[in-house]
Design brief:
With 102 residues, the chain is of the alpha/beta class. It has four helices and three strands; from the N terminus they run ααβαβαβ.
């Protein structure tokens, strides 16, 4: 059964090519704010995708978990430096649960 929906391999293969989406001026304030909210604990990202927010958040010392429906997007995340340190669960975040407190 195909469960990747819109974010299949074709989309995942070019998802990171949107340079503006990865601009540090856009990402850094978001990550800094989330670091404050996490208080050194763990964070759960819904729709973690290729890790645009999760990877820099993990680099700041936050343990990151993520949920995403798309196996293709999660594969791209796992291929990145630091991607193997993020706990991911494939599923619909409306019905999928993760162990832990966030």
């Amino acid at each position: 059964m195909h469960t990747d929906g819109y974010f299949d391999e074709k989309v995942a293969s070019t998802y990171d090519s949107d340079v503006d989406a990865f601009n540090p001026e856009a990402i850094d304030p978001v990550v800094d704010y989330l670091v404050e909210l996490a208080h050194g604990g763990t964070a759960l990202e819904f729709g973690i995708g290729t890790g645009r927010i999760a990877l820099p958040l993990a680099m700041k010392g936050i343990e990151v978990h993520g949920i995403d429906l798309s196996n293709a997007m999660l594969t791209k995340l796992a291929e990145k430096t630091g991607g193997d340190g993020i706990v991911v669960t494939q599923g619909d975040f409306a019905t999928t649960s993760c162990r832990g407190s966030f």
